[in-house]
Amino acid sequence: MSFVSSFKRAYQVIAIFLHYGLDELLPKKLTPWYFRLWRRSLFWLRNRHKHRPGGERLKLAMQELGPVYIKFGQMLSTRRDLLSDDWAYELAMLQDRVPPFDSKLAREAIETELKAPIESLFDDFDDTPLASASISQVHTAILKSNGKKVVLKVLRPNVEQQILADLQLMRQTSQLLETILGPGNRLRPAEVVDDYRTTILGELNLKLEALNTVRLRNNFIDSDALYVPYVYEELCYPRLMVMERIDGVPVSDIAALKAQGTNLKLLAEKGVQLFFTQVFRDNFFHADMHPGNIFVSRQHPDNPSYIGLDCGIMGTLSDTDTRYLAENFLAFFNRDYHRIAQLYVESGWVSPDTDMQAFEQAVKVVCEPMFNKPLNEISFGHVLLELFRTARSFHIIVQPQLVLLEKTLLYIEGLGRQLYPQLDLWQTAKPFLEEWMSHQVGPKAMFSKAKKHMPYWTDKLPELPELIYDNLKLGRNLLGSQQQMLDKYLRHQQRSHTSNYLLITSAVLLICGTILFNQDVTLWLARACIAAGVVFWLVGWRSRPKIRKF
């Protein structure tokens, strides 16, 4: 994407925001005089939707801007603490009620991937989409081979080009920010954008999503907390995915959940446990958990289970990050702010020369108010904002690999707030983390790791005596070589000292001989000194050691 194309896209984004009058929704303190002057200079970009409420304007603007912005709106829709109910309701429509594209185009795309007519593989294909989202839409059908109800998920036409254009614009903007911020900045916007690019491009490959779905399903195959639909892998392609059709209640439909007698407290607790299980047990977590992707089974409302869809965005962490993250959570739960400060230094998230005592106190000020409060009185958005303010003082480095996890935590908070606002998040998560940590350290953990590596060591055990002998022999040879090198070095140093002594003596004799040469009475002594000096010089020069490499 050229600079001209990026400029055109940037202008298009600004024009859409101004056409929907989103600038008029900003608080006055965020619109200084130079912003208002800039706005007036764009007099031809007028607000064309003054009659619409603010939430609807924002929703329509994001729909028009495309998938990247729609996904941002999806995340915002779960934040009832940040938005009013009217705004949250409007943005919630971005989850699965994005305007559909023409069913003829959907049929063409499906048959192109299948390389066969739809009727040859499916019965009762419904041209009216069941759901329409930012990147794809879903149609229902019945599989001819077994009579099972299925859904066909197909990508929107030209969606790749739209996303690539926005990603390129974001990349160029991030590079400009890095230039402004200077080297060594903490936010690393370019890395964050690159990480997001990898994530969202993976979502454009429905074959990859199918593999992710199969893996998540296998992780919870015997779970009563999460059900993941079956995927027909043989019918999955980069732009098409076929999977089992499920029947559930949208997690956002609280009225329907209450009508069927769903235990909302247990459902909320299971949601928290599922998140921590995916992150810490499996290190493979669903990172797009907005309400449009989460349903609740109609069976067993007294012991409800979730139904998870759309595994296009999945997150993983390194073993080191997972360990530090778990310890950080536990330290938070135990109010051990000194340990939190230590962990930030050990993990490399802050500089080793950070004032630990001041940092510990700053974390305490931010986090202490969160305890002993129900979820409806806790704003993670506010806490994150305060932590970023703290970051500016203590040079905390933003970790791009944790961005997905942070986004998922925001989704979890939003879902928990809707289902059961009185949920005590800490008391729900703490036992799980303590049990997980007990499996990572101590004798039980050592036994588990030894058991895990036992097949490898069993395979290598017959080679062990030979390896020990070879290493002992090699060690002996190395010791002999090192002794030889040391002897050579000592001889070299001895010859060097002798040569230097003779050359210095020669210089002294030559100087004395030169001084005495001007005295007639000591002419013979001057000649003797000069002759001895020349002899000493020759002997010293010839005894110089040659330069060798040791």
Automatic annotation (TrEMBL):
It is an enzyme of class 2 (transferase). It is found in: Cell membrane. It is a multi-pass membrane protein. Its EC number is 2.7.-.-. It comes from the Bacteria. ATP binds at L130, A131, S132, A133, S134, I135, S136, Q137, V138, K153. Its main location: membrane. Residues 94-343 form the ABC1 atypical kinase-like domain. Keywords: ATP-binding, Cell inner membrane, Cell membrane, Kinase, Membrane, Nucleotide-binding, Transferase, Transmembrane, Transmembrane helix, Ubiquinone, Ubiquinone biosynthesis. GO terms for biological process: regulation of ubiquinone biosynthetic process; ubiquinone biosynthetic process. Is probably a protein kinase regulator of UbiI activity which is involved in aerobic coenzyme Q (ubiquinone) biosynthesis. PANTHER family: CHAPERONE-ACTIVITY OF BC1 COMPLEX CABC1 -RELATED (PTHR10566), PROTEIN ACTIVITY OF BC1 COMPLEX KINASE 7, CHLOROPLASTIC (PTHR10566:SF113). This is Probable protein kinase UbiB. The lineage of its organism: Bacteria, Pseudomonadati, Pseudomonadota, Gammaproteobacteria, Alteromonadales. The gene is ubiB.
